[in-house]
Amino acid sequence: MQRIGELDGLRAILAFWVLFVHISKAVYDVDLLPLADLIYNENTRVKIFFMISGMVVIGMLAAKKPRYVDYMRGRLLRIYPAFFVALVLSLLVMPIGRDALQHIPFDAPQNAHRLRIMDATVENLWLHLAAHLTMLHGVVPHNLLKYVETAIIGQAWNISTEFQFYIVAPALLWILARPGPGRWIGLAGVALCVVAGTRYPNSANLGANALFFAIGIVSYYVINNANRLFAAPLVRYAAPACVMVVAAAVARSELAITIWLMFLLLVTPYYLGFWSARPLAALASPAMTFLGKLSYSVYLSHMVVMYPVLWLLNDLGLSRTTYFLVLLAATTLGATALAYAINRYVEEPFARMGRTPDRSGKAKSALVSG
User: Fold this and answer.
1) Which helix (H) or strand (E) element contains residue 198?
2) Which of 61, 164, 303, 351 gets the highest tally of CB atoms within 10 A of its CB?
3) Non-local CB neighbours of 345 within 8 Å, separated by 6+ positions
């Protein structure tokens, strides 16, 4: 499949954006900072990750048509080894993290919340560990296990959501490919599951986040049928304007969708041959491609680096600004180095073992790939 190279850069920005937000929340009450809703909204970055997955996974399935066993083996070998390493490292660092959070010399409300999660994790450690080892911690109800989705690796709640999507994605593609009433009956069933998910007592379940995967899936179908959908020259010029209008309409209520639509608007016309310019070419540069390759491990493991750095800084008597800048620099460098090691020695070897075979028998023409 032809790659959209800019997706690598987008993944890198999202992963390091998460790192920046988590560091900021350790030092500041971010609700009091400028542009708080724009920069620090907890789920904006994750929602964009979901839209990327919706587009990429459905695109891969549609292009390669793998057997379900081969597909799931590939997905598991792609995400589970690094997740397992991050899980073990997070458990080892938790005592240091707890001590560091208790002695931070600045008032930051998020730290008290992180301590509550750690206390709940220790109280039921083996149950939390069992839930995380299955990567289904996003479907365990809160009334059975408190803070289950954010225990051990707080930011990895969405890894469970992604895994749930991987499990059902082939069925979704099968439903979308059904002719006539079968498709609509299947989609009605999916809609019922989504409604149930919004009421389920764990917000990391797939149904509660289905909108964003659905936007990614629709993006795939629009992009890969663009030459037919936008055949008329007038439509080609009108389509970007329509995307901008839609983006403006949702900007105030859903920043993630706005960012995603604007990204597609600025990237895909080049690949479709509509534009000769490549406005976001910097996102596909070698540096951004390299950081995009590390983005999954950066996302999973940056707190493993942040907590020891917090512990070291707490007794130095630094001003809040100096403390934040040193924490940001040290954690960014350390997390990048750790992510490089995990990527090279864990992610890549297992990913090569799990490469999904192509059973389509067709030339690879889809734009997106994972």
Assistant:
1) helix 181-199
2) 303
3) none
Residue type, 48: I
Per-residue pLDDT at 247: 57
- Summarize the confidence of residues 303-331 as an average pLDDT: 96
118 phi and psi angles, rounded to 5 deg: -60, -45
Mean pLDDT of 330-338: 98
Query: Hey, what are 27's tokens?
Result: 């030092």
| DSSP assignment string, 88-104 | HHHHHHHHHHHHHHHT-
Nearest to 262 by CA among 235, 244, 236: 244
Q: Are 209 and 164 within 8 A, CB to CB?
A: no
Nearest one of 272, 271, 342 to 86, comparing CA atoms: 342
Instruction: Single out the residue of 48, 19, 86, 153 nearest to residue 297, CA to CA.
Output: 86
Q: Are 297 and 338 in contact (CB under 8 A)?
A: yes
Q: How many CA atoms lie less than 13 Å away from 184 in the CB half-sphere? A: 2
Task: Give residue-wise pLDDT tens across range 256-277.
Answer: 888 898 898 888 888 887 778 8
Give the predicted TM-score (pTM) of the model.
0.90
Of 89, 248, 105, 207, whose CA–CA distance to 156 is shortest?
A: 89
Q: 132-138 contacts: CB < 8 A, separation 24 or more?
A: 132/87, 132/156, 133/84, 133/87, 135/79, 135/80, 135/83, 135/159, 135/160, 135/163, 136/160, 136/163, 136/164, 137/204, 138/163, 138/164, 138/202, 138/204, 138/205, 138/206
The residue extents of the domains of the chain are 6-353
CA distance 110 to 22: 9
**CB distance 44 to 256 below 8 Å:** yes
Percent of the chain with pLDDT over 70: 88
- 74, two tokens: 């590939």
What is the rounded CA–CA span in Å between residue 73 and residue 54? 18
| Per-residue model confidence (pLDDT) at position 232 | 53
